[in-house]
Amino acid sequence: MPVAAWAVALGAILVALCYWLALRRLRNIAAGRSEHLKAKTGSFYPEELERYARHISLREIGGAGQRKLKNSSVLVVGAGGLGSPALLYLAASGVGTLGIADDDDVSVANLQRQIIHASDRLGTPKTTSAEMSIGSLNPFVNVESHRVRFAESNATELLRGYEIVLDGSDNFDTRYLVNKACADARLPLVSGAIGQWEGQVSVFDPARGAPCYACVFPERPAEGLAPSCAEAGVVGALPGVVGAIMAMEATKLITGAGECLTGRMLIYDALWCESRIVNVARDPNCPVCGAIEPVVRSAALDAAT
Prior knowledge:
Elements: H1 3-41, H2 46-51, H3 53-56, H4 62-70, E1 73-77, H5 83-93, E2 97-101, H6 126-137, E3 142-146, H7 155-159, E4 164-167, H8 172-185, E5 189-195, E6 198-204, H9 213-216, H10 229-232, H11 238-255, E7 264-269, E8 274-279, H12 299-304
Parallel strand pairs: 1-2, 1-4, 2-3, 4-5
Antiparallel strand pairs: 5-6, 6-7, 7-8
Helix pairs in contact: 5-6, 5-11
């Protein structure tokens, strides 16, 4: 056989071999994804037991608490400064279903503090970018992306199926809308806010005796008193601190560990590294939650009152 014919034959064999290897790799990936999917809906996958070992070792969480995390569903409103660390830590902790509601795209100005996004995703929807980061961090988490702005028209639909809501929005209109929707749905709301060097976190849950956001802030601040981060600036690491605390509060709500910031508000001053907790009370005449009858009351609320 001529040399040219041998070369053609060898090339065909190599192409066939490469095709077979690629096909086998795709099948292995598909099989792995299938196993991961089974693990999400059934018992823990062996890798999960190792992944969450430090949680399972904790007396306050243990295997039972980790299963609660796996079976939980949390909606995070806003995939920005606060949503970024909150989503990453909830995903790393093993929350089974994470919803993300945001209608914005990734911009250069976001990258100073919004650590769930990256430079090669500029112009990408934040929900898509966040889903990519979460998938890379923990493939056992189911992500539900909602590329919409939280509004009165879609609030009921967005909250359906979730147990806890984290509000990381950056404007008062959205905060009041999320608060009302959560109060109406009897869902606990972990609310955070930041500006310049200061941040605050509280758990608003009128169905369990705590105040709602409108009880504490019945009226939005006068124009200029609470400028946005775009107007007044914000130090890059601040949302990391506050967003991580929000994720911690959600983790405690899910597992039942410790006491949450229900009826209390944590205020953090990064410039002087000071923090304080103030009690916040429910307003019986609150137009949002005044008519809601609490179904249960925590020891922390009893102590506060």
